[in-house]
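look at this stuff:

>
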Amino acid sequence: MTTTIQVAPTAARRAVLNRRIRLFAAATITYNVVEAIAALWAGNLADSSALIGFGLDSVIEVASAVALSWQFSAKDPERRERLTLRIIAISFFALALFVSVDSVRSLTGGGEAQHSTPGIVIAALSLAIMPVLSWLQRRAGRELGSRTAVADSKQTLLCTYLSAVLLLGLVLNSALGWWWADAGAALVIAGIAVREGLNAWKGDACCAVVPAKGTAGDDGKADACCAGCGSGTDPDEDTCA
């Protein structure tokens, strides 16, 4: 498979991309604040581990987006990239830990999840909205060569996966009375969160662009992050663009 290396954008284009990423981060914060409040409220009413985990994921997405906004508020965002990645990774791990503990509690008799119509509506809305927001942010992050922007877009994309898993668990619980499907869905959520947290911690969030010829940092080689692009090691990374 042929891989392509994208030449670094011009200073003017970078300014546009920086503003765009801040805008996407603001949209993520706004949506997820509302989603978190609704999901945690519905989860407490239904004693649903999956819904509570989904609400906490929304809280973590807000924290991740705030960290990204902090990074891109600096004149040189790249200097804050490593710390921002660490914040994003830790947020994933925190989510996984809480959801795992709550799911095990439910499976061992700590409480059976009840039917939740609000939860189903929340999951369905998120399944429709989050993929678009994630794609827009990921596209801008890749063009800019920002690992943190792409990592945050994966946090947003994770919300899509979680929405699908949550919706399935809630529907199975409501239609068939499979209360354990809710806790099972929550454990899937935890597993995905751990994987993405490890990727963010290692910095395997995207493939950085290569500086244009003649610019500072041009050594004629692609960023080491690009080594796995197009190799099939990550289905989300088909090119280094």
Notes: The helical segments are 11-46, 49-72, 81-110, 117-144, 147-176, 180-202. Residues 11-228 form a domain with the Alpha-lytic protease prodomain-like fold (CATH 1.20.1510.10).
